[in-house]
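We were asked to recover a plausible sequence for a given structure. The inputs and outputs are reproduced exactly as logged, with field labels preserved.

PROBLEM: sequence recovery
POSITIONS: 429
GIVEN STRUCTURE:
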């Protein structure tokens, strides 16, 4: 198979009419939709940064169709991007479906040439970020997201896989380097230097942006994280696990959009979830109709942040105790009761190191959404720019502390306590 850096012969950007004819020719899709093709409704609804997304509805059921564009949608044709990301997304989705059944959309069809994936239409699910902006509580989220992360991360790691299989898996995703490069630039580099595409809520955050560009302690910390992201092929990551990549109802959770999938450090995925919950918390003051109106929602967010870590760690450790078939930590090196006890202490130490990674990546994920290219609606929908900047400045203050002083956060409770303190802080604009 060839993975194309430029549009291959046969690739075309689909319009709604082309898609109708195309799907009519795919028996599985036509059967899923039902009825005559000219009765299908087709709407392009993509509001993400990279791709086209069509919602197709027929007489019986619906489909979501995602097509990669040969460039970054957010920026335009001046920023080309390989279509091969659709291949990696398909590979990741099918892999995740095996490891975390029911927590990703079912794939119905993949077309390598058109860089297209047709999948189950998630209805009435909504993008979690939109629900959080509206102040909605999702009681099943913690259990679902921690099953997803514990299982996808553990079962792709050296704790679960023989070395040869793990190396084959690394190789299968190694070509997704253009998507990794986006992360390397937009998360780990640009927010800390002058970069054309950076933006922030000006003029309120001008001074903070300048401080972040001059702060060498911060530059060391983000560079250590970048090195870890570049070099630590610990597990197969989703790679972009923010609340815009999660669809929810009160009872269901689906993780979507794994086009950034590659082998990297586990803390990057866990940090993405925690960072986006922290931003939802610190943005919430910008969405309340009156002071205190969202206090139950905010308390739920803080409790959720604590449980995302504690439940992830509990589930991950339990998998390690019961499913460790990998080449790491050979059982023969830990014989008897003393060996078992020592290995258990080492498991706890591993998770403590992972927590430190998570703290750093959480901070990086917050800073990029405030000083970098791609922002999020948690903040962007706060119309009063001074109030938006207040919420963002509180987030930057928390994130800086987490990044340069990660070691002082020894428990997830310390993170939520610092978030509460940041929420009370008034920046001087
Ligand atoms: C140019 S792409 C910007 C961002 O969109 C994606 O969702 C990733 O988060 C990426 O960093
Ligand atoms: Mg995405």
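RECOVERED SEQUENCE:
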């Amino acid at each position: 198979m060839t993975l194309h850096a430029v549009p291959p012969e046969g690739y075309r950007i689909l319009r709604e009419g082309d898609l109708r004819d195309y799907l009519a020719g795919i028996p599985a899709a036509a059967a899923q939709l039902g009825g005559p093709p000219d009765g299908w409704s087709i709407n392009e609804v993509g509001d993400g940064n990279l791709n086209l997304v069509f919602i197709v509805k027929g007489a019986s059921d619906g489909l979501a169709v995602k097509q990669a564009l040969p460039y970054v949608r957010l920026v335009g044709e001046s920023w080309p991007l390989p279509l091969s990301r659709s291949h990696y997304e398909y590979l990741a989705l099918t892999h995740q479906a095996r490891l975390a059944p029911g927590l990703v959309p079912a794939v119905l069809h993949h077309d390598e040439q058109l860089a297209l994936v047709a999948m189950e239409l998630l209805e009435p699910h909504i993008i979690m970020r939109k629900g959080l902006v509206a102040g909605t509580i999702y009681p099943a989220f913690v259990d679902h997201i921690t099953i997803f992360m514990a299982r996808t991360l553990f079962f792709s790691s050296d704790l679960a896989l023989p070395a040869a299989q793990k190396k084959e898996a690394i190789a299968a995703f190694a070509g997704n380097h253009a998507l990794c490069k986006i992360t390397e630039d937009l998360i780990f580099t640009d927010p800390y230097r002058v970069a054309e595409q950076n933006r922030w809520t000006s003029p309120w955050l001008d001074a903070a942006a300048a401080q972040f560009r001059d702060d060498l302690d911060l530059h060391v910390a983000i560079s250590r994280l970048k090195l870890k992201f570049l070099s630590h092929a610990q597990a197969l990551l989703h790679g972009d696990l923010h609340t815009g990549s999660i669809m929810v109802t009160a009872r269901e959770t689906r993780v979507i959009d794994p086009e950034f999938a590659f082998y990297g450090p586990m803390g990057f995925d866990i940090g993405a979830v925690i960072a986006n919950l922290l931003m939802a918390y610190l943005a919430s003051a910008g969405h309340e109709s009156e002071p205190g109106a969202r206090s139950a929602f905010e308390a739920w967010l803080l409790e959720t942040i604590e449980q995302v870590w504690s439940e992830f760690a509990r589930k991950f450790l339990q998998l390690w105790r019961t499913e460790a078939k990998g080449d790491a930590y050979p059982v023969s090196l830990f014989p008897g009761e003393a060996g078992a006890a020592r290995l258990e202490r080492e498991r706890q130490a591993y998770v403590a190191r992972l927590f430190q990674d998570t703290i750093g990546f959480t901070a990086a994920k917050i800073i990029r959404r405030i000083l970098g290219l791609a922002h999020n609606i948690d903040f962007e929908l706060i119309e009063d720019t001074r109030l938006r900047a207040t919420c963002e400045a509180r987030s930057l203050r928390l994130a800086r502390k987490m990044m340069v002083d990660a070691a002082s956060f020894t428990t997830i409770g310390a993170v939520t306590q610092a978030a509460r303190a940041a929420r009370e802080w008034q920046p001087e604009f």
